[in-house]
Design brief:
By secondary structure, this protein is mostly beta strands. It has a single domain, classed as Electron Transport, Fmn-binding Protein, Chain A (Pnp Oxidase, Chain A, Roll), CATH 2.30.110.10. It is 14% helix and 44% strand.
């Protein structure tokens, strides 16, 4: 049986189409951090992916127009933090342009290799940046896992339909 799409519903504005489709795709929420000469930077990412077990690699996307990009572009190491459902405010802070991301409301410390490490997350990694691949208005950063802590408590935070939420189960 062949199913033909309702052509009236098809979209050709591909940037809007991409955003619309991926609003329906639930994704885990991470915060990526790094430290530069002017201090720490960070951003909320839903593009975190496990790439390889041997060597242990992750990837994430970062917009070249973001305030964090100049530091990420030069950083040798990054922190990768998996957020829990109790951290919706933290996710929103790191997603908001102009926010004081490392202000008093954010519990963090300088971790191994100088990477900012957030407190109270489900899990965190410190990674060595292995490469930056151009991808349109973003860069895909490949990072080799060096060490971390997977022992935080709670359930993961997800991003779906334009908002942060917990899993239903």
């Amino acid at each position: 049986m062949t199913v033909t799409p309702d052509l009236a519903r098809l979209r050709s504005d591909t940037p809007a189409l991409l955003r619309s489709v991926f609003r329906r795709y639930a994704a885990g929420v991470a915060v990526i951090t790094a430290c530069g000469d002017a201090g720490p930077v960070g951003f909320t990412a839903t593009s975190l992916t496990s790439v390889s077990a041997e060597p242990p690699l992750v990837s994430f996307g970062v917009g070249t127009g973001s305030s964090s990009w100049p530091v990420i572009a030069e950083a040798g190491h990054v922190g990768v933090h998996i957020l829990g459902e109790h951290q919706q405010d933290l996710a929103a802070t790191f997603a908001r342009s102009g926010a004081d991301r490392f202000g008093p409301a954010t519990a963090w410390r300088t971790g191994p290799e100088g990477a900012p490490v957030l407190d109270g997350v489900l899990a965190w990694l410190v990674c060595r940046v292995a490469g930056r691949v151009p991808a349109g208005d973003h860069r895909i950063v490949l990072a080799e896992v060096l060490l971390g802590d997977p022992t935080g408590d709670g359930r993961p935070l997800v991003y779906h339909q334009g908002r942060f939420d917990g899993l239903r189960g």
